[in-house]
Amino acid sequence: xxxxxxxxxxxxxxxxxxxxxxxxxxxxxxxxxxxxxxxxxxxxxxxxxxxxxxxxxxxxxxxxxxxxxxxxxxxxxxxxxxxxxxxxxxxxxxxxxxxxxxxxxxxxxxxxxxxxxxxxxxxxxxxxxxxxxxxxxxxxxxxxxxxxxxxxxxxxxxxxxxxxxxxxxxxxxxxxxxxxxxxxxxxxx
Length: 189
Known about the structure:
Elements: H1 3-24, H2 33-37, H3 40-66, H4 72-86, H5 88-97, H6 102-128, H7 135-140, H8 144-159, H9 164-178, H10 183-188
């Protein structure tokens, strides 16, 4: 399989994930401002998740722009990432409805954590499939940003038991860290 086919498949899955999330948005039952405002947490969870999926799409694109070849391990690692990302609509809906409850906030964080771990695995499989002069090795380095993301997700999940709001703040912090695509990879291309 070529990297272009893998990228096209992944793009399709990510587009479906976003479509499912937007289909979960339901119009308010009433026609007044209070009815609309009551949907604010649901809409905010959609915005956050849309941004997360966009971050993964953007970084996935950069990752495969620099990748020269794919193998079976890369294909499975990519599917592993897509699996966890496909759960984002479910946890988005749940946290949107119950943003102040511990279990939905933990579930949302767990899916984000497992997506980050899956991306890390995918990146490492790509690194292993290439030689020592592969530009991504230099661009990624020790991947402090990726490892820090995992730490913040773990902290957020742990803090869910103290305050769901602090946990959500940790999740948002990771999103802010990744909003700008990794310049190291762009410079290597």
